[in-house]
Each structure stands twice: as structure tokens, then as C-alpha cells.
């Protein structure tokens, strides 16, 4: 039975141990050579913090974690996900940048993302490609 006004998140999801990725989405881009943003939510159900230290995707030559600081976008090498907490990678906070795309990212495509954490955990998720407005509308704030 459907509940009015409620719907499943539109993004990719995965889980490994205490770590969960949800709402993973990538914005459409004309590529090749262009860039796209990826947004997601990381949840750590464990008793110790973990640190996101890298991300890879075969869709881009370079993939970076970015933070918005003082209204400016800057690459960061690591971000902590607190014990029993979550990290929102949403507009205005953190996000992933896929630079120098290998091919266009069209609506309906999906993009594999590989998130690397310390201690040594790797999570792989497929993120659907959506228009920016559709990509961000279901993200928690």
C-alpha cells in the first residue's frame, strides 16, 4: 500500500558493514571533457568514525571530493563520517566532482562510483544520471 506524499529515494543505494550510501545521484553532462556533480548521503552505524579518503569512477578521468567553504568550492583529501552519524554530500556542503568525463552522461544512464574509506573499506554504488533539479529534490538537508 502506498502512502500519499511518500516515495522511495531516486538515487542509488548500497551497504557494507556499518556503512550505508543512499540517495547517490549524478547530474547530466554533455561530456566528453565536461564535468558533472555527484551527491549522496553516507551513514555510519558503527561505534568509530570512518574517513572518506577517495573516490573513483570509470566515467571520468579525475574524481574529487569537494567542500563548499565561504561560498567557494575547494577539493579536500578526506572527510570524517562520525560514529553513529551521517555525512550529507548535498549542494552547499560537500559533493563529488567528476572531471574530464569520458563520454556524455545522459538522462537514464547510471554511473558507477567507488568510495574509499579508512579504515580500509570500499563501497561501490551505481548512481542514476538526472537533471540537476531532479537530482537534488530528494536529498536530505
Helix coverage percent of residues? under 10%
How much of the sequence lies in strands comes to: over 45%
Q: What is the CA–CA distance across the termini?
A: 27 Å
Order of helices and strands: EEEEEEEEEEEH
Task: Describe, in plain words, how this protein is organized in 3D.
With 141 residues, the protein is mainly β. The protein has one domain (12-137): Immunoglobulin-like (Sandwich), CATH 2.60.40.1890. It has one helix and eleven strands; from the N terminus they run E-E-E-E-E-E-E-E-E-E-E-H. Strands 1, 2, 3, 4, 5, 6, 7, 8, 9, 10 and 11 form an eleven-stranded mixed β-sheet that branches. Strand 2 (19-27) and strand 3 (36-44) form a beta hairpin. It is globular, with a radius of gyration of 15 Å. Residues 1-8 have low confidence and may be disordered.
Features:
141 residues, mainly beta, Immunoglobulin-like, 1 helix, 11 strands, 57% strand, disordered N terminus
What's the layout of helices and strands?
Layout (H helix, E strand, L loop, with lengths): L11 E5 L2 E9 L8 E9 L5 E7 L3 E10 L2 E5 L2 E3 L3 E5 L4 E8 L8 E9 L2 E10 L1 H6 L4
Parallel strand pairs: 2-11
Antiparallel strand pairs: 1-2, 2-3, 3-8, 3-9, 4-7, 4-10, 5-6, 5-9, 10-11
Structure summarized in a few sentences:
The protein is mainly beta and 141 residues long. 4% of the residues lie in helices and 57% in strands.
